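Hi Prof. W.,

I finally got the 7-carboxy-7-deazaguanine synthase prediction working! I wasn't sure whether to trim anything, so I left the full sequence exactly as given:
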Amino acid sequence: MIKEDVTGLVNKGEMLPLMEEFYTIQGEGYHKGTAAYFIRVGGCDVGCHWCDVKESWNAETHPPTAVDSIVENAAKYSDTIVVTGGEPLTWNMEPLTSRLKAKGLKIHIETSGAYPLTGTWDWICLSPKKIKLPTGDIYERADELKVIVYNQHDFKFAEEQAEKVNKDCILYLQPEWSRRDKMVPEIVDFVMKNPKWKVSLQTHKYLNIP
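And this is what came out:
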């Protein structure tokens, strides 16, 4: 009965499979350099072969944690909260975000958009994947489009995705970390020829921080 009760709470978003939570510097995209508290939620079936957090994929390996507890911890550290994964939209984000907002916190999400958008967000970073494309209205809602560049075809994919977002969405190309030496020069060349795009780097890895 206890397991069934927990499963029901997870399905409602009242508990979440919490992989980790930590205070650090946002390393990517528009808010890079900003102190933020990260909430990493387990569970993802998108399956990017180059994912650097594959241990997040199996939600069952991460303890179901009460949203109230997650919120209390987050509020101690920062007024900017980043919810990431895994794929956080696997779960109902409304309970988490409503309680974070009640604390007066700014809430960002990093998502592939593979599941419908739930929750209330101050900033939406959409990082679409070819394997499982975004769904619902997230293209219209996204503040930032971040396309990971692993090979040449990803530039074509990036342009296709850019056509779908709203006109105010900021466009970023980010090299996949293991291919950065090869792809950074190509990204720089592409951005110089297509200046609507900006370069994003995983600066936290250069800084050797989480």
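The beta strands are 15-25, 35-41, 64-66, 80-85, 106-111, 123-126, 144-149, 170-175, 197-199. Does that look reasonable to you?

Thanks,
D.
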